[in-house]
């Protein structure tokens, strides 16, 4: 059975809000700790900060095939393959054929994602994303 690929947008509002809150809570924890506030206050701030970052990674922690992208580039974490990333400016060509998706990147070997291994819908979504950003 073909595997699905989860595509994660790192420019989404949810991602930006959770990163911002996580940083604020961690900074507050450090400030409370350095000013010798009551220990519960900096423990709570630290827990909330860590919780924000955990909320970001929990959805993809157990997922094997995840592609994360922002406005500059893409990171591919695929099972059975080394995790790698590239900038959209390094992308030479993207081709969708009968066998699957072929991604040609400057300075890296061509990446082939087979239709036998991955769901066609996931490959089409990735193809459309790379074509739009290229």
TrEMBL record:
<protein>
    <submittedName>
        <fullName>Uncharacterized protein</fullName>
    </submittedName>
</protein>
<feature type="transmembrane region" description="Helical">
    <location>
        <begin position="15"/>
        <end position="35"/>
    </location>
</feature>
<keyword id="KW-0812">Transmembrane</keyword>
<feature type="transmembrane region" description="Helical">
    <location>
        <begin position="41"/>
        <end position="61"/>
    </location>
</feature>
<keyword id="KW-0472">Membrane</keyword>
<keyword id="KW-1133">Transmembrane helix</keyword>
